[in-house]
From TrEMBL:
Protein name: FAD-dependent oxidoreductase
Domain of life, source organism: Archaea
Keyword Lyase (UniProt): no
A single cellular component GO annotation: cytoplasm
Alphabetical list of SUPFAM superfamilies matching this protein: FAD/NAD(P)-binding domain
Keywords for this protein: FAD, Flavoprotein, Oxidoreductase
Provenance organism: Stygiolobus caldivivus
Length: 324
């Protein structure tokens, strides 16, 4: 059976580990450690977030002919019997804002930050919190604002993690504005329901959605994420499966590296003949501000050595997906 995997992120590599005979297609020659992109912004070293692939066809997917079961790329067309789509995420951003979606974005942002005196980060999730802290560390004299619409940072985590993040950032000198919804961005001016802030750079760490390819392929989707059933099978085609940030059930699947790894494995097992419903488990969510690691481990707040260990184990497992 000819099996093709589109996308070599956490989900795609996890699927390939289950079925090494599958053809994995990715437009890059390396795997991106997305949770290390903030380190690239801070240091300017792209190698911190890049791990070379050892088994991948580097090609740009132009389209998929689902009727003919054909993946069309800039390096030729490839027939499949079963297809697993794991194209990851993209960002929908405000006009005149920066994003940190890949290594190139991180390097471009770093160059701009070196010249900026004031920065606004939109969104108090993992990326926004880590970015705000890293930017302030790069230059303690730079004005850094972190704007969050909800009443706490890291709203999907425990209140202890939210409070700890707020305390660390404010101690660094980051101006954290909670319950501030962005109403307008105009020529470097950020207008919220409560403030007007002039900034040299405005960074968006919100607006995460599926790959634009999902919509271009004509697949049923929610916020750019292809809709799959409980077995991770496409609601449109029985021979197509989806996993990772580009796919979700109607009940919603979180966009997370560890969930993507679990989804990639289950999707491939079901593609090969299994019939088990997908059940995910968030073991740990770890955030780093400066040298401080903290987060939620099995639903409980942790910090220090245990949180750092959880982060390093996660990185090790990600790298092992690529090189094994």
């Amino acid at each position: 059976m000819k099996t093709i995997i589109l996308g070599g992120g956490f989900a795609g590599l996890s699927a390939l580990k289950v079925n090494p005979d599958a053809l994995l297609i990715d437009q890059k020659s390396y795997f991106t450690l997305t949770h290390r992109l903030v380190d690239v912004v801070k240091t300017g070293d792209p190698k911190l977030a890049k791990v070379p692939y050892h088994k991948v066809l580097v090609a740009k997917v132009r389209n998929v002919d689902f009727r003919k079961k054909l993946v069309i790329t800039d390096r030729g067309d490839f027939q499949y019997d079963r297809l697993l789509i794991a194209l990851g995420y993209s960002q929908k951003i405000f006009a005149n804002t920066e994003k940190v979606e890949d290594v190139q974005d991180a390097l471009k942002l770093r160059e701009k930050l070196l010249k900026a005196k004031s920065v606004v980060v939109l969104g108090g999730g993992n990326l926004g919190v880590e970015l705000a802290g890293a930017i302030k560390e790069m230059d303690p004299f730079k004005d850094v604002y972190l704007i969050e619409a909800q009443d706490r940072l890291l709203s999907f985590m425990t209140t202890e993690s939210s409070t700890y993040a707020y305390e660390l950032l404010t101690k660094l000198g980051v101006k954290v504005l909670l319950k501030n919804k962005v109403e307008k961005i105009d020529n470097g001016l950020v207008v919220t329901n409560d403030h007007e802030i002039r900034a040299d750079i405005i960074i968006s760490s919100v607006g995460f959605k599926g790959s634009p390819m999902i919509n271009e392929m004509g697949l049923t989707n929610v916020n750019g994420r292809m809709v799959v059933d409980e077995y991770l099978r496409s609601v449109d085609y029985n021979d197509v499966y989806g996993a990772g940030d580009c796919a979700t059930t109607k009940q919603y699947i979180p966009m997370s590296a560890q969930v993507a790894v679990q989804a990639g494995k289950r999707a491939m097992l079901n593609l090969l003949g299994g019939e088990e419903k997908f059940r995910y488990k968030q073991v740990a969510i770890v955030v780093r501000i400066g040298d401080s690691y903290f987060g939620d481990f099995l639903g409980r707040f942790v910090k220090g050595e245990l949180a750092e260990l959880a982060e390093k184990v996660g990185i090790f497992r990600a790298v092992r997906l690529v090189v094994s």
